[in-house]
Amino acid sequence: MEYVAPFWLPGGNLQTIWSAIVARSVRGVRPSFRRERWNTPDGDFIDVDFLENAKAGTARPLLVLFHGLEGSSSSHYAQSFADFARQNGMAYAVPHFRGCSGEINLAPRAYHSGDYEEIGWILSRLREHHDALGGGPMLVVGVSLGGNALLRWAEEMGSEAGRIASAVASVCAPVDLAAGGTAIGRGFNRLVYTRMFLNTMKPKALAKLVQHPGLFNRDALLQASDLYAFDNIFTAPLHGFRDTDDYWSRGSAKPHLDAIRVPTLVVNARNDPFVPAASLPGQQDVGRHVTLWQPAHGGHVGFAAGFPPGNVFSLPREVGGWLKQHA
Questions:
Q1: What is the CATH code of the structural domain delimited by 12-176+256-325?
Q2: Residues designated as active site
Q3: Contact indicator for 28, 18 with CB cutoff of 8 Å
Q4: pTM of the entire predicted model
Q5: Cα–Cα distance between 186 and 175 in angstroms, integer?
């Protein structure tokens, strides 16, 4: 990936925050989505947003995007990939992880970084859905948390992944969850990003406690001041992990990247404030099916370009272009 940060946007934090809040993510009109609610096998639901540009009975590529922690189809990167899909005549879908579509889900569980079984169920449904509309290749992008979970799915599926998706890409995924968790729990990251995430994650957890009394210790959750503590109280035990360390270890994609057998792109900026450069995979960690792009700049899902206010068109153009080559 060829990316050079604008001279007026130095540093990983500025590239991250500016891209999310200020830079343009679409050309003109914001994407219009049609929402479908799907019932899950365990009696819950997820919401999937489809870009309103699909024509039934027309074979065309389907681009699927899995969002990051507390993201949605309204996230700047989801909007920019929607813009790319529209420009390139592709169908586009954003499945929401449980509790992220604006309505709390029903089951005790929520979602997590290693949620490859949920990814697998969603992709199988999307494959069936797309085939019913005329078929065509399915290309899948996962961003941050969604990127790690997508990679875990590709690792677990091995050669079977190609039956569902033609190619996959992760963007700014914390493939070493322990390294990413430690980084976001320190200094500026703790003051800004950790606080931002907990401001939405805690209320959702408390709403789930109302649904399911006794699910976890309310006082302990209220006192959690970083993601390590939150995951120890909520995420890990609700999803079958012993504790945060067990979750971060078993959920990380990095140790298994050589098991992937579908064309896969792994994009990480080396100045990402959430993902330390030292934790990124090298060629020795991956097999021939995995391509690594590790530009020096870009921040966390940033990659803004142009003159102020800038835009985030380069990320979907580069990633989408790579995926299209494998369609």
A1: 3.40.50.1820
A2: 144, 272, 300
A3: no
A4: 0.97
A5: 18
